[in-house]
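Appendix B. Chain record.
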Amino acid sequence: MKKLIQTANLYVQESDWKVFAILKFCLLALGIIIGVNIPKEHKKYVLGGSLAVFIATYIPLMAKFFSLLTRRDGQD
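Structure tokens predicted for this chain:
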């Protein structure tokens, strides 16, 4: 497991924003494919869980982005 994490860290260090944009589009496409194949009676639960994961990940990502943005604006 440690080697997997080290490899992931190296991948992140050697990637730029374009790689992460492509990764996000890939995950979006995967999510759409999965969403299309979920039975109608379970879609409400999947949507609720997806919304919870989105909120739990979006808020920290945006907090970090805005802290970097304000730090960079202070330097100019």
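Further analysis of this model is presented in Appendix C.
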